[in-house]
Amino acid sequence: MSKMKSLTPLAQNYVDRFDALRTTLPGHGNPLVASAREAGLARFAALDFPGRKVEDWRFTNLSPLTKGFETEGAPASDEVPAPEFETPHVMTFINGRFSGDDSRLGDLPDGIKLASLAAELEADNNALPDSAAEESRAVVALNTAFMEDGFVLTAEPDVKIDEPILIRFLSQTGTSENARHMRNIIRLGANAEVTLLEEHAGINGHAYFANPVTDIALEEGSWLHHYKLQAESDTAFHLANVDCNVPKGATYENFSLSTGARLSRNELATRITGSGATSILNGAYLMRGKQHCDTTTITRHLVPENDSRQVYKGILDDDAQGVFQGKIHIAPDAQKVAGDQLSRALLLSERASVAVKPELEIYADDVKCSHGASSGELDADAYFYLQSRGIDEKTARKILIDAFLADVLEEVSNEAVRSYFADITARWMDEV
Known about the structure:
Blueprint: H1 9-21, H2 31-47, H3 63-66, E1 89-94, E2 97-98, E3 112-116, H4 117-122, H5 138-146, E4 151-155, E5 165-171, E6 179-180, E7 183-188, E8 193-202, E9 209-210, E10 213-218, E11 223-231, E12 237-246, E13 251-258, E14 263-272, E15 278-287, E16 292-301, E17 307-316, E18 321-330, E19 337-347, E20 353-362, E21 367-376, H6 380-388, H7 393-409, H8 415-429
Parallel strand pairs: 1-5, 4-7, 5-8, 6-9, 7-10, 8-11, 9-12, 10-12, 11-13, 12-14, 13-15, 14-16, 15-17, 16-18, 17-19, 18-20, 19-21
Antiparallel strand pairs: 1-2, 3-4
Helix pairs in contact: 2-5, 6-7, 7-8
């Protein structure tokens, strides 16, 4: 492919390396996979990484990533930490590749299949969705071109699994490749119910680029509890995209807790295509130093009689920056739809900042929709009251922060995951 001088340095690097790398990527012998990769690269080369002139990216500047970044600095690591979250079902990826030695998949019930995407592509199992070659988002197109592994989760109709499935994506030093293009596929049959916890983590000081893409298709009456912990290295870049189709009577529950990465973006798109369907997108982000965290959502109500809910809360200290962009789209004739959205941020420093852009795009008249956004400091009166009762300054501060987060954490319907996330936020607040 000819060199395109107008591209950013990182984008040009990907274009230049594609021909040399394509035969090392899984499924390269499958014409359908090869065609999807070529289409993804062509689309990415036409788009480049989005700049701030692109409306959806005007609050997030990718130049620290696209101009190149240092990969040295972290101590060498080869020991894989044991998972903190207790569950019998664990799948682990290290530096973008499935690690069977660090996984426990033997106890999955009948009707649940969890496989490596690389293995599925090599076996010509056609795991990729048909839309993979028609992508309009640059970072997703890049993922399609260079996807190396990920998980493929399928549940047969009526299957329910009680314990959460833990998927760990760990980045360690000692590898020359500093990018992880993970592609995840989730398919739930009618009335199936699954709880999934993703963890993305790395060693502080280790710089890398994580670009996970997750494609989810639910069938009628199914329920996916999808939780995510983003605890990447403090020098990493994490750009994630999740697409979910929610049909009749199905429920998609997503909760994202973000504490890591130098720059992160969590982008979620749900399409509600059936009556009685529900999309629940919630999350919390805890940022300090010079961290930047962007949450961008779009929920499309395409038919009548369904609902969506969103609650996101952020805590920003030092020079940290937060972004929330949330859009609810209600199509013509999508009557009797309810859509609610709330974003709140707590600024612990005068230098911390948050940019918020809530949107309602409504083309039907019999709907109930709301959105709200606020940001501010700790309540001075409550702060004074606690101290006047003999509570020291640091403890009073933690009490108020904990109260701010408490209601959004209650949105996590799985008790074990909710407790796990509460422990993580408590550890973060111990350093405030």
